[in-house]
Amino acid sequence: MGVVNQTRSGPRDLTVVAVPLYFGGMAAEYLWLHRQAARRGPTAGDYELHDTLTSLAMGVGSLVAPLVVPKLLRPFTPGRGRYGKTVVAVALGAAALTTAADIVADRAGDQGGREGPDAADSLQLIDGTDEGPPVSGRSRRRALARSARKVASVGGVVAVGLGAVAVTTTWASRMTPGRLWRRRLLPALGTGPLALALAIAGWDFIYYWNHRLMHETRYMWAIHVVHHSSEHYNLSTALRQPVADAFGTFLPYGILCLFGISPELITTARGVNLLYQFWIHTETIDRLGPTEAVLNTPSHHRVHHGSNLQYLDRNHGSILIVWDRLFGTFEPEVQPVVYGLTKNINSFNPGRVATHEYADMLRDVARSNSWGDRLSFVLRGPGWATRHRPEGVVANADADGRSDMRLSQPDGAESIRFAPTGHH
């Protein structure tokens, strides 16, 4: 998330320039941990080959995705792409068909009461005019209800999926830094140290709210969950970035352009922000004293990656931890941190890591019987989804029943184990 489009003459992406730093840092950390292993035994901070390779693969994907996905989605963007109107029309048509199927299923299904499918047949028993409802009639009603539910299941997924594409692509196309820069409210602040400092602080503030939103809204969590998927915590974890930022609706960093901060400075601020976050993904560094009152540190960020109940959805800051202290999401590191999701996916497959939450979310939408539930499974927190999923149905319902959803948490309590593109 937070990718800023650049022109060929724009500033270089610091996160790409720093690739040698990433590998050098990981090599130094690995050697240090290897030397300490005999004395302190295995820890969650150790490097594991398959886990590290997955993190590196996701890191490469996070660099490639912003270059490829927006181009693939451009033709389907309403108001801009040639297929934009088609996407909207099909989404609305699928929504109407789903609504009609819901009505048919509710009326034909065996719900009981005066509105139930066998209400008329039951009246025959009261009058003594028949021995009971014809079995064939009841079977036809139930068959009709099942067929209608199948239609609603497919239609609901199509409507939600295409509706999401329409909304997210439209939002992204209208909130680019260049577009907002042309509509700025204040004069350009230039490129001096003060303007750069304001850009970095402004990016950090917006980042906090975007990061928090990605923990409190499920369709955004589906993007961010990638970063929290590892059960290890070392510098390679910082590279385990999301690839689906294009399907989010983020508070645009281009808002800074309205106040005179140029798109070039916003790009630089993004790079500084992400580079800072690299070094805090480690267990090798303990506490850092008074600086922890203001800055985000390895200790604070270990909490963010914890699946412990008291650590869920805490410490969303990037460079500054003061935002968490101000807005009530700060939690100090007290108990040992257990990394990963509350229900881990137990897979090193990058494809599964990137898509498992989307698959769960669409399954929940397909099983829903009303628009209230369908939208809630997408827009509310992952904890809501866990509590309202039918009994016996588990997220990531594979043969082994694995799930990455946190159990019995409030709407804002998400399964936090991954960090999104642009979010650690």
Alpha carbon gap, first and last residue? 10 Å
- Uncertain stretches of 5 or more adjacent residues: 1-8, 110-129, 397-424
The total strand number stands at: 0
Radius of gyration computed on alpha carbons:
25 Å
pLDDT averaged over residues: 86
How many helices? The count is 15
Broad structural category:
mainly alpha
The fraction of residues in strands falls at under 5%
- Helix-strand sequence: HHHHHHHHHHHHHHH
Main sheet specs? none
Helix content: 40-55%
Task: Write a structural description.
By secondary structure, this protein is mostly helical. The chain folds into two domains: 14-74 and 183-388, no CATH class; 84-169. The protein is built from 15 helices and no strands. The chain has helices at 14-17, 19-40, 49-73, 84-108, 119-127, 135-174, 177-181, 193-216, 218-224, 263-278, 298-304, 322-327, 350-367, 371-379, 382-388. Helix 4 (84-108) packs antiparallel against helix 6, helix 6 packs across helix 13 (350-367) and helix 8 (193-216) packs across helix 10 (263-278). 42% of the residues are buried. Mean pLDDT is 86; it is low at 1-8, 110-129 and 397-424.
